[in-house]
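Q: I have 199 residues here and want to know how they pack in 3D. Can you give me a structure?
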Amino acid sequence: MTKSNHRESDYPIDPMFLDRWSPRAFTGEIIEEAQLLGLLDAAHWAPSSANHQPWRFIYGLKGSEHWEIFVALLNDSNQEWARNASALIFVVSRAFTGAAGSTEEKPSYTHSFDAGAAWGHLAIQARLSGLYAHGMGGIKHEEIRQAFAIPEGYRVEAGVAIGRLADKSVLSERNQAREFPSQRKPLSEVAFNGRFVAN
């Protein structure tokens, strides 16, 4: 059994997995590009099918000329708090293997799965670096595609806010009520020995 961060696992896992969570309260401080690139470097060492490495990261740093563009590409409810992050990232995956337009181009079944593994690496490295990462599905997918001229064959997966943890008092009342490390379903509801359970 492992306990940390007001969370508990029935198994002896590393406390880092309990310490990682997705806060909304960020200090808004500027971070160096090199620090963000360290997180992205950890992400790009994630496992991938046949080593195709389908993940792509588009990032903007707070204080840069691109910042407000990145913020505007989030859904309104996420703009409210994510504008206080230190960096915003859009995760894109390449949905095919081989050279584009060539006879070697083939659909990749695992591109989203692999990009998710990269996001997991990023989130853990953020925590190890004294930062927090909050993944978001609430982004303007089609507008992101247009803003960055992302061609067909690439999928806009998610957004990520990176920053240092602030007191929850910086958030709206609604978000203050949500600002705590979430729990997980019992493992028995998601892992099945020799069978599948639709639930």
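Q: Anything worth noting?
A: Residues 111-128 form the longest helix (18 residues). The two ends are 26 Å apart (CA to CA).
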